[in-house]
Design a protein that fits this description.
alpha/beta, 644 residues, seven-stranded mixed beta sheet, elongated, 11 strands
Length: 644
């Protein structure tokens, strides 16, 4: 089924994805186009499976010949570019992402790290766009299962195999749509990448192909009356507008919009020289030609943008033209290279499975190599740690900066995002008459290295009780919905019950949130502690730098940029913080360490040769430990029970 207007549709999808990515406008709906069109073309192969015209191996062989080679090539080239232009602090994440991308599991890896608070703080992934490629691969291998079920059912009831497969596909698609509507309302950051929630889009494209192969009377009547022309334009306008209108609403019901737009074009677009039909635009030679390169453009545009973004965060129309233009050139070259490799296998009489075998071997080799190298870097291999970056001359030991964490992360007493249970660990003198609780989220936990030193020096009993993405709040305050997940809400209830039961002398927590805001729930929770007779030390939250500090620290040297410091006034609001302090109970000890962290008009990233930040908004454990004396000098004079 060769239609140049479908290539034009793929071109529109690729351009939407690239433009929305480059300008950070949200989700464009372009990927939904790719999934629907993939289902459209997958129909013919699925029918051959059902009718036993080809086997499972032949079906899979098509994927490894058409899709896998270019996808694998891009991963390999981007890995080389990453080692040259990306901070060693990001190499572990890059290698991990590459391993999941080349094995077509990136969608589920992104779903996992979407729930991983630490992983979310890593730099912009070079391979996150491979989630869609992974979904396509997984569905491609899933269709034979549906075909096998259809054959069994058709034999049992003496039904038509193709009709049975069509019915099963329709049912599965409805179930998939229902699932994604439910799942996206529950965990949208996971649902977006879930293959089960995307099957219905492939099913929509495949059912359209089924309809058109039957030469439907309904479609002919609609086309003959001119309504088809109108619907083709409706489909194109829907595609071009959905990202602008719904770009921040995906996934779930919003994904129906671009899918319907793609379906309308697949059904009612025709190749024509008259502008009455959207096919007039989509079938233009240059548009269709770009459509044949759309897969390569999709693969190349994101890593080019992700690397460029690290040096020039603000994008312009000119930079978009450069990125898309370079992606197109590389798409031509990579498509030509893989085609030449395929012809080489043909000349060696390995036409049927030669390229597929090479692809599978490459998948195993690249995936395993990435995991081995990632493990070597993470294990502090002495040989690797003594090496330096080939261009910036930065030590590869910087690769561990993101793991410069408080000890509570490694010992398992920093709770994850999903569990409401309290986990805790003790430091200092456990027999001390003065017990100090450190409570809250990761921005509380980052002070643990400094407090550990204080506990040892002063003979205090320090207990760390923290949880990822969960500040210390009053869980019953109505305005807390945007700050607290249900897990965090229950964790705070459990924490308050524990404090009421154990009655520590001192509780250290945060006085405010991002941007020096102070929701009422913080004040209410702190007041509850004061009412118990507990001394509360309320720390000002540390600045959010707004840049990936480890990456910037390397890249500024690579490109000769002066430094990565951020104007303090852009990330701190002293007036708002002063209002926060004045609203706290008089008994609360308020401590502002940001004057130490940002002593002048700028917040720096390096001090004494060490990186101060392990990401964009958490202090490195090494630097935090150096603040112990300064922190204690601000707290001790205000603690009556410790005065001599």
């Amino acid at each position: 089924m060769r239609r140049s207007d479908i290539q034009g549709l793929r071109a529109i999808g690729a351009l939407l994805v690239a433009v929305f990515h480059i300008f950070q406008w949200g989700v464009s709906g372009g990927v939904d186009v790719f999934l629907t069109v993939s289902g459209f073309f997958l129909w013919a192969s699925a029918v051959k499976l059902v009718e036993r015209e080809e086997g499972y191996i032949t079906h899979c062989n098509k994927f490894f010949q058409r899709t896998a080679p270019q996808a694998i090539l891009v991963v390999m080239v981007v890995l080389i570019a990453a080692f040259l232009f990306i901070s060693p602090g990001e190499w572990v994440a890059v290698l991990r992402d590459a391993a999941f991308s080349v094995t077509f599991l990136q969608n589920y890896w992104l779903a996992i790290i979407g729930q991983n608070y630490l992983a979310r703080d890593e730099g912009l992934s070079l391979f996150q766009h491979y989630w869609a490629v992974s979904v396509i691969a997984q569905v491609y291998f899933l269709f034979p299962v549906l075909a096998f079920v259809a054959v069994l059912v058709a034999r049992a009831f003496a039904w038509s195999k193709t009709s049975t497969f069509t019915a099963i596909l329709a049912v599965v698609s409805l179930l998939s749509l229902s699932w994604t509507l439910f799942f996206s309302s529950w965990l949208p950051e996971v649902a977006y990448f879930d293959t089960l929630g995307r099957i219905w889009q492939f099913g929509a494209g495949a059912l359209v192909a089924s309809l058109l192969t039957q030469d439907s009377d309904l479609v002919r009547r609609i086309r003959s009356r001119g309504l088809g022309n109108v619907l083709s334009w409706v489909g194109l306008v829907a595609l071009l507008s959905c990202g602008v209108i719904l770009g921040r609403s995906f996934p779930g019901l919003a994904s129906v919009w671009p899918t319907i737009g793609a379906v309308l074009i697949l059904v009612f677009s025709i190749e024509t020289d008259h502008p009455r039909n959207a096919g007039f635009v989509l079938s233009r030679r240059w548009v269709a030609r770009f459509g044949t390169l759309s897969f390569g453009v999709y693969l190349w545009h994101w890593p080019i943008y992700a690397i460029y973004f690290r040096f020039v965060p603000e994008q312009t129309v000119l930079s978009a033209v450069y990125i898309i233009g370079l992606s197109t050139v590389l798409a031509v070259l990579s498509a030509g290279f893989t085609a030449r490799v395929g012809r080489a296998f043909d000349r060696m009489n390995l036409r049927t499975y030669g390229l597929s075998t090479a692809a599978v071997v490459s998948i195993v080799f690249v995936g395993a190599s990435c995991l081995v190298l990632e493990r070597a870097i993470r294990s502090n291999n002495p040989l690797i740690m003594t090496l330096r970056h080939p261009l910036s001359d930065m030590p590869l030991s910087l690769a561990h900066i993101r793991r410069d964490l408080p000890v509570s992360y490694d010992t398992g007493c920093h709770q994850n995002q999903t569990s409401p249970d309290l986990t805790m660990c003790s430091f200092g003198d456990t027999e001390s008459p003065t017990t100090v609780y450190l409570v809250g989220g990761s921005h509380s936990a980052q002070w643990l290295p400094a407090l550990q030193k204080i506990a040892v020096q002063e003979g205090l009993h320090l207990v760390s009780i923290t949880k990822s993405a969960c500040r210390f709040f009053d869980p019953d305050t109505s305005e807390m919905a945007e700050y607290l997940s249900e897990s965090c809400r229950n964790w705070n209830r459990n924490l308050m019950d524990f404090i009421e039961e154990t009655r520590p002398e001192i509780v250290i927590t945060l006085a405010n949130t991002v941007g020096d805001d102070a929701p009422a729930g913080i004040g209410i929770a702190i007041q509850s502690l004061v009412d118990l007779g507990t001394t509360v030390v309320a720390l000002r939250d540390t600045p959010h730098m707004g840049i990936d500090v480890p990456a910037c620290a390397t890249q500024m040297q690579l490109f000769g940029r002066p430094n990565c410091h951020v104007p303090r006034a852009e990330i701190q609001d002293d007036a708002k913080y002063a209002a926060t302090v004045s609203a706290l109970p008089a008994q609360v000890i308020s401590v502002d360490m940001n004057g130490e962290i940002c002593p002048d008009r700028h917040c720096d990233v390096l001090r004494g040769g060490m990186l101060m930040w392990r990401d964009s908004h958490h202090l490195s454990a090494t630097y935090a430990a150096t603040l112990s004396d300064s922190l204690w000098s601000r707290i001790r004079p205000q603690l009556p029970m410790l005065r001599p």
